[in-house]
């Protein structure tokens, strides 16, 4: 039964909106859960590819005789590409659709990651990592907009937080599979060749994920939106009821390069406070995370650990992050988003400081501190992703998340480079991590005073 109602009738104003019906559906694993799984697998491969940087840096330093600054560009180029991709694909998702943008991001980072395995030149390798990063940068903002807009309001905080559970899985697989391939073949190219797999996921996106009805409504494509919503009502077993589709459609503009500028201006017009807080949180927390992610194997090797053990320890750091995601999913709807971020983001930095104080191959506490950091930082990050995606309306959700992610990628690209080439030589590893912790703590304090709580709110 199609629960249509004339949008112009006087009684229609008493009906629930299409977005209300969508967000009040029961959660079913064969409906919304399928979108969560397919989107999550894309996120998993994103994490896998990003985590390859920490594997490639020590391997290529040895293979090509690179200095520390040269090796740092392997990760920096990838993250700068992600900075470009984040606002590029976030804007495309808001203008041209979530589904198409998600498919393209998967294909681009798979193709150029594999291309990196075909070169013996640092220049070309860095260039391919940059291009792969452009695809990677769009995966997270587009993924969160897509999954969030299909998820019922009551479960949205948990589901969006649980999305980040795919990240430690992908990051851990990167370490474990790379260690196994290096032990089997001893060639750095094999870990890159595995990344042909994300391209195969595009088929499942096209077959099993519809376009977001909230996006369609915002574009004035009411009939297409109704078709998706009515199908979801039937498949979830919910009671069919009349609803109205009078969501204010976004003004249709030609999609030109100026669209990226227009979306950026619209973000600041919508709320300078929300946009500033979003950028600040992403910049500080994600820079701290990528310093640990990219350089932990190198720190461990320099402290006296064998290469394979350093890789596996770093994989363990990523793997236990799944526990952090579970804790975040439990807390996010109980304490709210702001409390989790204010506590666990600074705590992650403190753990890095203690780790630096005790860093030695002979100190058994080092392994436990690496695992503790991996757990605690992954309590903060999924809540950050859920929080920022909830603060923006549908017309700005992809680009709002995307631009915040862009700012973070710039910081995460140059931050680790400056950390190892400037802060560590000047302050030592302990002092450098204290500096990072202080900046993260300041960002959390700004959030507490200037950003809203989004717990339990319905998406626009």
Automatic annotation (TrEMBL):
Transmembrane segments: 35-59, 71-89, 101-118, 124-146, 158-182, 188-209, 274-291, 311-332, 339-359, 365-388, 400-424, 430-451
Keywords: Membrane, Transmembrane, Transmembrane helix, Transport
Chief site of localization: membrane
Membrane topology, from the record: Multi-pass membrane protein
Top-level taxon of origin: Bacteria
Compartments it resides in: Cell membrane
Domain Major facilitator superfamily (MFS) profile: 35-455
Keyword Amino-acid biosynthesis: no
Gene3D superfamilies per UniProt: MFS general substrate transporter like domains
Pfam families: MFS_1 (PF07690)
Annotated protein name in UniProt: MFS transporter
Organism: Micrococcoides hystricis
């Amino acid at each position: 039964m199609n629960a249509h109602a004339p949008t112009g009738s006087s009684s229609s104003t008493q009906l629930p909106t299409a977005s209300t019906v969508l967000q009040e559906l029961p959660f079913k694993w064969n409906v919304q859960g399928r979108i969560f799984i397919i989107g999550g697998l894309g996120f998993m491969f994103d994490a896998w590819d990003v985590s390859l940087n920490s594997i490639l840096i020590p391997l290529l330093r040895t293979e090509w005789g690179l200095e520390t600054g040269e090796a740092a560009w392997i990760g920096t180029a990838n993250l700068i590409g992600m900075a470009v991709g984040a606002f590029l694909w976030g804007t495309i998702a808001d203008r041209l659709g979530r589904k198409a943008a998600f498919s393209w991001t998967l294909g681009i980072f798979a193709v150029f990651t594999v291309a990196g395995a075909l070169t013996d030149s640092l220049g070309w390798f860095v260039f391919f990592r940059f291009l792969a990063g452009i695809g990677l940068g769009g995966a997270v903002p587009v993924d969160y907009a897509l999954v969030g807009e299909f998820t019922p309001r009551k479960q949205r905080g948990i589901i969006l937080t649980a999305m980040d559970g795919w990240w430690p899985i992908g990051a851990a697989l990167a370490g474990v599979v790379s260690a196994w391939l290096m032990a089997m073949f001893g060639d750095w190219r094999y870990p890159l060749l595995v990344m042909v797999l994300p391209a195969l996921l595009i088929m499942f996106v096209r077959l099993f994920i519809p376009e977001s009805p909230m996006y369609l409504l915002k574009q004035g494509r009411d009939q297409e939106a109704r078709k998706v919503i009515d199908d979801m009502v039937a498949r979830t077993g919910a009671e069919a009821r009349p609803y109205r589709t009078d969501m204010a459609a976004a003004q249709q503009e030609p999609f030109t390069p100026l669209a990226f500028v227009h979306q950026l201006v619209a973000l600041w017009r919508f709320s300078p406070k929300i946009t500033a807080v979003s950028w600040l949180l992403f910049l500080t927390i994600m820079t701290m995370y990528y310093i640990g992610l990219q350089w932990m194997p190198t720190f461990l090797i320099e402290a006296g650990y064998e290469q394979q053990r350093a890789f596996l320890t770093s994989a363990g750091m990523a793997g236990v992050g799944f526990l952090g995601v579970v804790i975040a999913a439990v807390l996010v709807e109980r304490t709210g988003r702001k409390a989790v971020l204010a506590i666990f983001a600074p705590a992650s930095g403190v753990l890095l400081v203690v780790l630096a104080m005790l860093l030695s191959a002979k100190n058994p506490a080092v392994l436990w501190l690496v695992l503790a950091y991996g757990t605690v930082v992954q309590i903060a990050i999924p809540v950050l992703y859920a929080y920022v995606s909830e603060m923006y309306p549908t017309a700005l959700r992809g680009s709002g998340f995307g631009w915040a992610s862009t700012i973070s990628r710039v910081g995460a690209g140059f931050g680790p480079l400056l950390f190892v080439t400037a802060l560590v030589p000047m302050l030592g590893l302990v002092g450098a991590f204290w500096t990072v912790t202080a900046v993260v703590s300041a960002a959390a304090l700004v959030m507490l005073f200037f950003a809203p709580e989004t717990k339990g709110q319905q998406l626009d």
